[in-house]
Amino acid sequence: MARKFDNVPEVKLAVVGVSRDCFPASLTQKRMAALEPFLKKLEVTYHACPVTVENEVDAMKALADIQAAGCNALFVFLGNFGPEGPTTMLMQKFDGPAMVAAAAEEDTGVLQADRGDALCGLLNNSYNQQLRGIRSYIPQYPVGLPEQLAKHAADFVDIARVVVGLKNLKIFTFGPRPYDFLACNAPIKPFYDLGIEVQENSELDLLMAFKDAASEKDWIREIAADMDQELAGKNPYPDLLPKLAQLEVALLKWKDANLGARQYAVFADKCWPAFETAFGFVPCYVNSRLTGRGIPVSCEVDLYGAVSEYMAICATLFPATLLDINNSVPDGIVPSGTSLEEADVKDLFMGFHCGNTCAECLEDCALKYQLIMNRGLEKGGTPDITRGTIEGQLKHGPVTLFRLQANSAGHLSSYIAEGNILNVSPQTFGGTGVFAIPGFARFYRHILVGKGYPHHGAVAFKKAGKVLYEAVKLMGVNDIGVPLPDHLPYPGENLFELFYNK
Predict the structure, then answer these.
(1) Of 69, 230, 260, 455, which is the most buried if we count CB atoms within 10 A?
(2) Whole-prediction pTM value?
C-alpha cells in the first residue's frame, strides 16, 4: 500500500492549457474543464492554471501562476493544436519535469467547426522540444479523451516524484569504498549532472557522531523500545538495542544537521570489517529501519545503490531494499508444482543481503548475527561484535529489480526487470528470497555481466518498471537494459547459440 514518506517529495501537478491563436481558446478551456473531474477521481493533486497560453506573454503569466501555486511538475495540455513556441518556452523555464498530451476529438459533431487538430499540434510541439533540448514525458498514447488523459497524468505523478526527488537529493557517505568491491566505486560527476549533491565523510566522522549521540538518552530509549516492539520477541540480544538505537540517532541527527539546501537524503556507509571492531556491532538492522522510512542506507558505500533504492521508493511509495544478485537455486529448494510465474527454471536466482531489508518486507524476521563476518572477525566463536542483522525470508509477490549506474567512463546506464519473489523458503541465512524473473538468464549474461554492472540491485516490492523506465529516460539516460524475449537477440549475442545450435 502506498504511503507518505517525509524523505520523499509530494507532487503538485500544474495543468496548463495551451491554444493556438487561430483556434478559439474556449475550446481548450472547455476540454480542460472536462478533464478535471477525472483528475479528482484519481486523487491527483493538481492546480489548474487559469491562464490559457496563446503567446509568450501568456507563457510568462502561466509560469508565474504555477510557481506561486507551488507546483513542481507540469502537464501541458493541448486542448487544440497549441502554439509550439510559447508552449516549449514555458516548459524550458519551468524548473521541474513536464508531460505533454493532447485532446482527442470527442465525436463527429466537433468536426464541423470545433476540431482541435491535436495530432498535428503534438508533432510540432515535439519538434520544438528537440530544438530547445527539452526532455518531457509523452505517454504511449498521447492523444485521448479526458478519462484517458487523467490516467496518463496519474502515471506521470509517479514518474515526476522520482525526478523531483533526485533534483533535491543529497548523498551522505561514510568511509572509503571497499577495495574488494571495486564495482561499488562510484564516478561522482554524473550525480552532479543529475542535480544530486554528494557529501563524503570519514568513518571517524560517523564514530564521533555516534559517541556524541550518547547524550540523547531519552531518544535512544524511545528508539530501543520501538525496536523491541518491531522485533516482537524475535530478539535474542536485548542488550544490543541501545547501541543500535544510538547509531540510528546519530544518522538522523547527521541528516538534519547537514542537509543544507537539500530536502531529501540517502546514506552510503562502510559497514565492514573495521566498523564492527570500532562500534561493537553490525549496522544492518539500523540500515533496514531507516530504509523502511524512506531514507535508504546502502551498505559497502554503494552510492548508486542508495540512489537506486531511493528511486524505487519514490516510484512505489513503499519500502525498497538493496540485495546481492547472489547465487543459483539448487534442486530441492522449489517444491515440485510451484508456479514460476512465467519464468523458466534457469531464470531463478537468490537475492541476498546480510540484514538490511526492513521487517515489513520480510515474511518472518529476527535479530541475528552476520555469519560470514563472525567467521572472519570472531573466528566462528560466540557472536558479539557481529550481532545486529535482521534476517528472514523476503516477502513473496511482485518485484522489480532496478539499478542506475555510471560505468568506468562516467556514462549513466540503467537496467530494469520485473518478476516475482516466490513463496519458497531459501533455506539459508540473511535476508534472502528466490526470484523468478522471466528471461533473467539471458538478461544476466548480456546486460548485467555484459555491461559490467555491480553485484547490488535495488529491489522494489511492486511492479514499477513502467514508472522507472520513464523516469530514467526523463533524466537523460538512454542506455536502459530490459529482459528480451527469446526471439529477440541482445546486441552482440551469438545468434548460432540462440537460434541454431540449441
Answers:
(1) 230
(2) 0.96
